Amino acid sequence: MYQVKTFNAIADKGLNTFTNDYTINQEKNPDAYLIRSVNLLKVQFPKSLKVIARAGAGVNNIPLKEATDDGIAVFNTPGSNANAVKELVISMMIATSRKVFAAYDYSYQNIHADISKQVEYDKAKFNGTELFGKNILVIGLGNVGSLVANEAVNLGMNVSGYDPYLSADSAWKINNRVHRLTNLYQALKNADYVTIHVPKNKETTGLISTKEIAAMKNNAILFNYSRLGIVDNQAVVDNFNKIQFYCTDFGDDVIANNKKVITTPHIGGSTIEAEDNGAIKAANTIMNFLENGDTVNSINLPSMKLPFNAPYRFTIMHRNVPNMVGQITTFLANAHVNINNMANAAKNEIAYTIIDVDNLNYEKQLLQQMAEIPEVKRARLINHR
Ligand SMILES: NC(=O)c1ccc[n+]([C@@H]2O[C@H](COP(=O)([O-])OP(=O)(O)OC[C@H]3O[C@@H](n4cnc5c(N)ncnc54)[C@H](O)[C@@H]3O)[C@@H](O)[C@H]2O)c1
Ligand SMILES: O=C(O)CC[C@@H](O)C(=O)O
After folding, report:
1. What is the pLDDT averaged over residues 239-260?
2. Ligand 1 in contact with 268 (CB < 6 A)?
3. EC number(s) (predicted)?
């Protein structure tokens, strides 16, 4: 039996994905955490914990180094809520351009019997602009950014993209009418709309600040549906002579109570479809890792998926240093255990080795020997089901 502990509201469809071999929130020694945005940065992980799956994209709420040191595999569910974010961003682009929020305020405050005549005078205050033919810059062209860029093309906009780390997978998804720009300041110059879809990390914190806002076109509208801190909110507030509106999912004191700021409470991924999607993917990720050792979509381990055809599988998470596989296979040879299949890959300082074996002898001793190699973070033995 495997034990899963959940944090945040996890969609029932995801929880129902687990087979009868899993209990949810019932035990004190969880094998897996299934989370959304809960802040785990200061949490001490139990020794039993082997995997954290984040239903969603951002992993800045997970202490990756500490998790890796504790031998915990960390995953997200890339793209599971990308369409939800895209639809919110596009709707906010239209709503701000058509002054929908101000128009709503006006109507809400002026509902009385003869409003129908009054509106014909007052509606000039709410003259808007169209997206068609306007310039948009999409910063970050991964799962969310590529969808936003493609939808903007569909809406007749001139679309530019800036993403120095664009993956080949993402590049395949992007409409060839999206112009790729390599200089952020040049890219910002002509954009009527700037939308940011990057992970939060050291490099992207303050990605848009005073200098970048100065490079922007007058009256541009800025969108941050990525994370708090990627845009310097103080710089935005200080530059509303330049920026027309700032739309964001991440409010704070600096931007509170400002008519030029439209803040939503982190609802980019909050649709029934996206929450189902993320929870189902996260549940499958946990099961595939615990039962097969698969690491596809891992944040801290190399991506590996090896057909599991032998009776037993060792999975070893270890530092990426010489002679790890040599030491491990020597233990197996000394125990007269025959290797059926194996794979090893590395991601930065960490490596992962999968070894399938035909027979087992002294398994407790073998696992202990592997675990006692100083560079090994975690060794597991999985029985084929
Ligand atoms: N508001 C929400 O509810 C919500 C929902 C989903 C995602 N998000 C946030 O949006 C972020 C992006 O999501 P995604 O699914 O598109 O992630 P993703 O990993 O698919 O794409 C991120 C893209 O950003 C690019 N990038 C990285 N550093 C960059 C930099 N310095 N400049 C420009 N581009 C850079 C990467 O190359 C990648 O293509 C997530 O990390 C998360 O923080 C928020
Ligand atoms: O869980 C959520 O609702 C937030 C999701 C979003 O911020 C993400 O990074 O995927």
Report:
1. 97
2. yes
3. 1.1.1.399, 1.1.1.95
Q: What is the CATH number of the domain that holds 159?
A: 3.40.50.720
How many angstroms does the Cα of residue 57 sit away from the middle of ligand 1? 8
Instruction: Determine whether the shortest distance from the Cβ of 35 to ligand 1 is under 6 A.
Output: no
> Average pLDDT over the chain, rounded to whole?
97
Question: Is 151's C-beta closer than 6 angstroms to any atom of ligand 1?
Answer: no
- The rounded distance, in Å, linking the Cα atoms of 137 and 194 is 5
Residue 192: is its pLDDT beyond 90? yes
Q: Are 337 and 352 in a shared domain? A: yes
> Residues lining ligand 2, judged by CB closer than 6 Å?
36-37, 56-58, 81, 266, 268-270
- Domain hosting residue 6, numbered range: 1-81+272-300
Pocket flag, ligand 1, residue 212 (CB < 6 Å): no
pTM assigned to the model: 0.96
% the chain with pLDDT above 90: 95
Domain match, 119 and 248 both: yes
Q: Give the count of domains, the chain.
A: 3
Q: Provide the token pair at 46.
A: 């139990």
Quick check: helix, strand or coil at residue 174? coil
| DSSP 8-state secondary structure symbol assigned to residue 360 | -
Residues 248/231, Cβ–Cβ less than 8 Å: yes
Relative to the alpha carbon of 197, which ligand is closest?
1
% pLDDT > 70, the chain: 99
CA of 278 to the centre of ligand 2 (A): 9
Question: Is residue 304 within 8 Å of 294, Cβ to Cβ?
Answer: yes
